[in-house]
């Protein structure tokens, strides 16, 4: 969808600009993971449950079967479930967000797929593997209500002379919680911790296919990077060398990531992604495991973030975490700053003026046109002067058609004498496009607009189910073009564009976010008065009014 939109935008720019030129209108890191660490991570990630053997010569220990219980941790933002089997995260409900997935019946967002827990731990010690995900832990409490910072739950277990304690620390005001672990009996060489990040998130959107398009592994080493699930065939193994400050998996609006952000904290040495299930041409699963060095003391730590891809929240955490929610594609250096600015403006207006987001877009569309009014005025006046000199230009073209150098000099002389810039009408046409591109990504990636209704529109981030807005958009383009052609001599090419461009735009915007359609519709309507005033000025100059 993004590529088709970008290509269509490029086509629209060509269509908008070429006629104006050819037929002017008459007007502290660790070293990257070693090959041994990476090989161990792959084996630990893809193999079945191994026999536990830590110290050489110690008898193998197989995990006994036991029924697991779930420890529930509730904060004002989330309800988390941890299994006593492996001390793994088995449920992550976000209490402030509604699921739109079919069959969820307006339940809260639940990120973790059934029977696919997160935070499954394995310790690789030389050639042995300690699979903590297969251990049965004893929790310090069965339920925990978090009302402030510093609330903890500790899971402890002992087997074959090895003791393990894993402590989770929660803050009522954050989707992020701390993980601290201690393992005794590792030996002098320490170990490599393999952290299982599951195999993707549960889709909680009404349009699951669109959600799958956004499923990706995201990492941050020297810069943030993204690997789409769709780029991994089933069974494909992708090894990524760190060190990583953070790494995780994302959907369209949500993120689960392990973080190692504190100073002097060991970072994730590497990551392994394995392609999983597919639904048609879209990948729905991709397993991710991270490696973390563990010193001989057996202590390790990291944080886990399970929450929305909310720009301001992620930006406050720093370390480019907001890049996990990418704005832009090939135009990202231009689109991202504009997108961030647009998002902040829209959110500020919504929060401080207490306007619904739909009315915020209406006001924003009018504001952009008012700001561009002076530039548009100069461009339209330049087009009018261009129309005046067009007969002279045509005469020069006919006279010097065989002498390009003379033709160029004479045309520049005429333009200078009549104060005409041949490209003077292009800049105001180009300026709104960065905003339009930015708004496309804003409505595709910004969670604040998810599920927000306006008038008959059930969701500003999704297409108009009645297709009223894109039809009105096409009609507004047609009216804008007809008004702008008053007093302009007949031009077959421009007449064709008058009918073709609105139809093309209607088809293009038919399935795009209704909020984007609403902005563009308001922008077109706000442009009509200025076009009418210029048309009247043109007619007066021609003595027709």
The structure class reads alpha+beta
CATH class of the largest domain: Mainly Beta
Helix content: 25-40%
Q: Within the largest sheet, what's the order of strands?
A: 7-9-10-11-22-17-16-13-14
Low-confidence segments:
11-65
**How far is the first residue's CA from the last residue's CA?**
48 Å
What is the mean pLDDT? 79
The domain count comes to: 2
The name of the CATH architecture of the largest domain is Distorted Sandwich
Shape: elongated
Query: Strand-residue fraction?
Result: 15-25%
Radius of gyration: 30 Å
State the helix count: 12
Number of strands: 22
Q: Biggest β-sheet, characterized?
A: 9 strands, antiparallel
CATH-defined topology of the largest domain: Beta-galactosidase, Chain A, domain 5
Report a brief summary of the structure:
38% of the residues lie in helices and 24% in strands. It has helices at residues 2-22, 35-46, 208-213, 311-317, 332-353, 357-399, 404-417, 427-430, 432-445, 468-484, 492-509, 514-541; strands at residues 70-74, 78-83, 89-98, 108-110, 120-125, 128-131, 138-139, 143-145, 151-159, 162-170, 176-183, 191-196, 216-220, 224-228, 237-244, 246-250, 254-259, 268-275, 278-279, 282-283, 286-294, 299-308. Strands 7-9-10-11-22-17-16-13-14 form a 9-stranded antiparallel β-sheet, with no helix packed on it. A 6-stranded antiparallel β-sheet has the order 6-5-12-21-18-15, covered by helices on one side. Strands 4-3-2-1-8 form a 5-stranded mixed β-sheet, with no helix packed on it.
